[in-house]
Amino acid sequence: MSRRRVLFITSDTIGVRMAGHGIRFWELGRVLSRHFDVTLAVPPFLRTPSQTIELDFPARARVCRNMAELRGLVREADVIVTQGAVVLMCPFLSRLRKPLIFDSYDPFLLASLHPVVDANMDERLTIAEKYRVAHLISLRAADFVLCASERQRDYFLGMLSALGRVNPHNHDEDPFLRRLMAVVPYGLPEEPPRQRTKVLKGVHPKIAAEDRVVLWGGGIWNWLDARTAVRAMARVVKRRDDVRLFFMGTVRPNPSVAQTSAVDETIALSRRLDLYDRFVFFHDWVPYAERENYLLEADIGLSLHRDALETRFAFRTRLLDYLWAELPIVTTEGDVLSEKVSRCELGRVVAPGDGEAVADAIVTLLETPELKDTYRPRFARLTGDYRWDAVAEPLVKFCHEPRLAPDKDFLQTLPHPLASGRGRLVLKEMWTALKESSIAGWLRSRSGLG
């Protein structure tokens, strides 16, 4: 018998350099390729640095030049998995009579609420409405929904309730709606990281072999708090002159999405505090396959965020890399993974915006004798729970026994999310952009919508 065909349609760049959405589909695709014929597709409205993508697992990668190519892949597939705003951009996906899986691990509507430089209230309301519509259309169309935590599941069950999807059709055979929505967290590789080459200590011209490195292991987004990290470093260097803060990513791999204003603001602050290129360093973007070299050379993994609604429902993917590398963590309280850091004593958890507490946490950890050896046993108890093959089990199970949601026909009797006035405006603007071949620009103006 031929193997079932699973198509992933990514909302972000995949390849050498990737951010969270792309990495997630890359790794889920790797796991599913052991069971199914997997294709990873980049839709035509995403600009990609390369038309050729080399996978390191047995699957196909396709960069679609037009919508006809994407439709062809959809026709061939038995199950479709997508994320972000793809269903909004490809309305034909919502009319399929094939199982459609929507990966909602990133509640990007909440991230969009953080103001950006020079954006007035009308612009912000428009952006938020596009995010809301993208969520609602995808959740209405999905036969199976993924999220990253039980807390997220509560949030998205609220959306599903408002859409009419918490109904007798879904409830009677599945009272907890686990067949409609399952928790599939972000994961970490099965193999431990390996130091393949030196990249920082004794190699970087301004990081000595004996220096201690604090690593910011991902991008600098508006909803995070990189500026407090820089302010904390201004305090740290007064107590120790051998500490360096290294940001792994400032230039987002996906050119279809606008750069966040937080990058420029953080760099500007480091310059004002006379830390730039002396104690604080900014890298463009570390290739995915090379990140382990940086993680293993670092002494502390840092992740700070704001005190906001986005934080409560976030799943900080960079913390999984710190778990993988058994890297002691300094992070802000408020999200599910910071609670795990505190409970399992994986580092230090601080209050939002408290630069003094961040500095104290960094110095205290660095003064711990044999820091990594001390913390290593605490990480070993957790890593197995978050391996990609373990977290992907609900997705693998669904793809083995795919089905259409039992309420699909019933949904046609309910109002559509685009029935509202603002919703219709979103759709009209999107189709105008498509007709004018300016959809990449439309996406770039909506930071993170991908």
Please name the defining characteristics of this protein:
single chain, 450 residues, alpha/beta, Rossmann fold, 2 domains, seven-stranded parallel β-sheet, six-stranded parallel β-sheet, 20 helices, disordered C terminus
Estimated structural class: alpha/beta
For the largest sheet, list the strands in their spatial order. Answer: 3-2-1-4-5-6-7
Number of domains: 2
Low-confidence blocks of residues: 436-440, 444-450
Give me a quick take on this structure:
The chain has 450 residues and is an alpha/beta fold. It has helices at residues 20-32, 67-76, 86-89, 108-111, 121-141, 150-162, 168-171, 226-239, 261-272, 291-297, 309-313, 317-324, 336-343, 355-366, 371-380, 388-391, 393-400, 408-411, 421-435, 439-444; strands spanning 5-9, 37-42, 60-63, 79-83, 100-103, 144-147, 181-183, 212-216, 243-247, 280-282, 300-303, 329-332, 347-350. It is built from 20 helices and 13 strands.
Give a verbal description of the structure.
The chain is α/β, with parallel strands linked by helices and 450 residues long. It has two domains: 5-187 and 390-444, Rossmann fold, CATH 3.40.50; 212-386, Glycogen Phosphorylase B (Rossmann fold). The chain has helices at 20-32, 67-76, 86-89, 108-111, 121-141, 150-162, 168-171, 226-239, 261-272, 291-297, 309-313, 317-324, 336-343, 355-366, 371-380, 388-391, 393-400, 408-411, 421-435, 439-444; strands at residues 5-9, 37-42, 60-63, 79-83, 100-103, 144-147, 181-183, 212-216, 243-247, 280-282, 300-303, 329-332, 347-350. The strands form two sheets. Strands 3-2-1-4-5-6-7 form a seven-stranded parallel sheet, sandwiched between helices. Helix 8 (226-239) runs parallel beside helix 9 (261-272) and helix 8 (226-239) packs across helix 14 (355-366). It starts with a strand and ends in a 6-residue tail after the last helix. Mean pLDDT is 90; it is low at 436-440 and 444-450.
